[in-house]
Amino acid sequence: MNRYLPGATIGVMGGGQLGRMFCVAARRMGYRVEIFTPEEDTPAGQFADLTRIADYTNEAAVRRFAQDVDVVTFEFENIPAQTIEWCAELRDVRPAGSILHTAQNRLREKDALAAAGIPIAPFRAVRSAHELASAIESIGRPAILKTAAFGYDGKGQQTINSRDDFDEIWSASSADELVLEGVIDFEKEISVIVARGPDGDMATFPVCENLHRSHILDLTVVPARVEPAVELAAAELARTIAEKLDLVGLLAVEMFLKPGGELLVNELAPRPHNSGHWTIEGCATSQYEQHVRAVCGLPLGSTEILRPAAMANLLGDVWLKGTPDWSGLLAVPGVHLHLYGKKEPRPRRKMGHLTALGATAAEAIERVNQARRALHPSTS
């Protein structure tokens, strides 16, 4: 088991906001951080010690990057598997490339979960209009048709209700491989973030309750408003998946809570997760520090809640009338603002988030909503 102590250099594939907050945590702990990204002036690059700008398919640049760091991780899934393989030939990659390969394709992910006996929604692979018709007959309506790869925040999805023109539906998709999933009747969407070190030690963060708006995470509440038995079952599911995958690092497990308490796993993300932003202020160890600890082989930190929290994303829509005046938001007690340093606000683009702490989950929710009302009426 290789350990990487403070002073070592961590290489991060990707330059987004998750990498940005990872850089802050790692540098505070005494690590150097280099990032590899095809883009200039990225959120992570503003905090990294060094940014290497090259395409992920540039083998020579990727190998130089790997040689110059001590251990490699990644901050999002859309990285070619070959890129990670080049890194793995030279350095430890944590989580492993095999986990990334599984998580970046919905079919591979669902096949792996089903093979491990993890409860999931009914699904079928779709590679033609004929297979779509067969899948609809098997699963029924309503159903959700999703691209197998490169889908997030609701992108690459459509709901099928009563349409029977499968040729038209198939032709409208630009993907060669799709997944048809049965629509789940659920009470809540929740997530659990689990950390696992190279020695097999694991720690789960408290269950997060997630509310979405137009397929994008809008609000996360901790502690989740669920029964204790559900909390235990959700944490156990996350730990089981981490063990099956031989995870080293972080894994976010998104789940549906059905009426009656049954849990179905929806998606996996082998990295820090949007629903874990609240841990920066609300937890004894943030998800970003925990990822550093796990990737570097250090003891995992406490996941104790310090105070109930609510986290809300700030999308580019907030900037429609110009740069917001943050003073009203920051006047709300217990509210913390995080901006990602992105230059171009666009509708639905994640530009930042705010976290509110309170004596109770209800108070945290009220504070985060009060902050959004102070910022812009349309975000309340």
Helix and strand run: EHEEHEHEHHEHEEHEEEEEHEEHHEHEEH
Shape: globular
Give the name of the CATH architecture of the largest domain.
2-Layer Sandwich
Please identify the structural class as seen in this structure: alpha+beta
Q: Could you give the distance between the termini?
A: 48 Å
| Largest sheet descriptor | 9 strands, antiparallel
Count of all domains = 3
Give the uncertain stretches in residue-range form: none
Task: Kindly report the CATH topology of the largest domain.
Answer: D-amino Acid Aminotransferase, Chain A, domain 1
Provide the helix percentage: 25-40%
Radius of gyration: 21 Å
Short key terms for the protein model shown above:
380 residues; alpha+beta; Rossmann fold; Dna Ligase, domain 1; D-amino Acid Aminotransferase, Chain A, domain 1; 3 domains; 9-stranded antiparallel sheet; 5-stranded parallel sheet; 18 strands; globular
Tell me about this structure.
With 380 residues, this protein is of the alpha+beta class. It has 3 domains: 9-93, Rossmann fold (3-Layer(aba) Sandwich); 122-182, Dna Ligase, domain 1 (2-Layer Sandwich); 188-379, ATP-grasp fold, B domain (D-amino Acid Aminotransferase, Chain A, domain 1, 2-Layer Sandwich), CATH 3.30.470.20. It is 31% helix and 26% strand. It has helices spanning 17-28, 59-68, 81-88, 97-103, 106-115, 129-139, 166-172, 228-245, 279-282, 287-296, 327-330, 361-375; strands at residues 9-13, 32-37, 50-53, 71-74, 92-93, 123-126, 143-147, 157-160, 178-182, 188-196, 202-204, 208-213, 216-222, 249-257, 263-269, 309-315, 335-339, 350-357. The strands form 3 sheets. Strands 10, 11, 12, 13, 14, 15, 16, 17 and 18 form a 9-stranded antiparallel β-sheet that branches. Helix 1 packs across helix 10 (287-296) and helix 2 crosses helix 3. The model has no long low-confidence stretch (mean pLDDT 94).
